[in-house]
Amino acid sequence: MKKRQTDVPIPAPTLEQLEAELKKEQYKRNYGRVLRSTIFSLLVVAAAAVLIAVLLLPVLQINGTSMTETLYDGDIVVAVSTKNFSTGDVIAFYYNNSILVKRVIAAAGDWVDIDEEGNVYVNGEQLSEPYISEKAFGDCNINLPYQVPDGKCFVMGDHRATSIDSRNTAVGCISDSVVVGRIVLRVWPMETMGLIN
């Protein structure tokens, strides 16, 4: 027969031990609360940033050379979502599941004409175009002079020799409904960061 061992009483925890255990539990609870609050705040900020970037300030990367000397292939720009733009503004718009960037030349109802040297006339007045370095007639298959239809605008790239734009029926005039926004700022590369004129 086995001898029965006597149960040794477990001593009650001291006040210091109880306080230390209470502090540990409070720390765990506070840590969990702060962690949840931080994650929630970060998610809200990220969602707000995405909404702003998509709806108010789209960020776009330039592909191609149709806007040189103003914008170059690889530049990253910020647009302001607006349907209010005027002649001379650089806008981005949807075209065949991609986004093109061109300059507004004329508004609805205006008459556009281009001579063989590439000089552009709107309503009989030659445009002053300090943003282009080389004039060209370009790829034009519309009948000139050309009247811009209602609800549309006539756009051209700044690199007139290579740009396919409203001079060609493949792109044509741009409706307000397809405009992403007006390009206002180049943010990359850093050395050329600045406002777009």
Throw out a few tags for this protein.
single chain; 197 residues; alpha+beta; 4-stranded antiparallel sheet; 1 helix; 27% strand
Topology, element by element:
Layout: H1 15-56, E1 59-61, E2 76-80, E3 90-95, E4 98-106, E5 111-114, E6 120-122, E7 125-126, E8 146-147, E9 152-156, E10 174-175, E11 179-188, E12 194-195
Antiparallel strand pairs: 1-2, 2-11, 3-4, 3-11, 4-9, 5-6, 5-8, 6-7, 9-10, 11-12
Characterise this structure.
The protein is an alpha+beta fold. It has one helix spanning 15-56, and strands spanning 59-61, 76-80, 90-95, 98-106, 111-114, 120-122, 125-126, 146-147, 152-156, 174-175, 179-188, 194-195. Strands 1, 2, 3, 4, 9, 10, 11 and 12 form an eight-stranded antiparallel beta sheet that branches. The longest helix is centred in the N-terminal third of the chain and has 42 residues, at 15-56. The protein is rod-shaped and about 110 Å long. 22% of the residues are buried. The mean pLDDT is 83.
Sheet-strand content, in percent, reads 25-35%
Mean of residue pLDDT values: 83
H/E series: HEEEEEEEEEEEE
- Structural class by sheet pairing and helices: alpha+beta
Radius of gyration: 32 Å
Helix count from the secondary structure assignment: 1
| Largest β sheet strand count, sense and barrel closure | 8 strands, antiparallel
- The low-confidence runs, each spanning 5 or more residues with pLDDT under 50, are none
Helix amount, in percent?
10-25%
Note the overall shape. Answer: rod-shaped
N- to C-terminal distance? 102 Å
Beta strands, count: 12
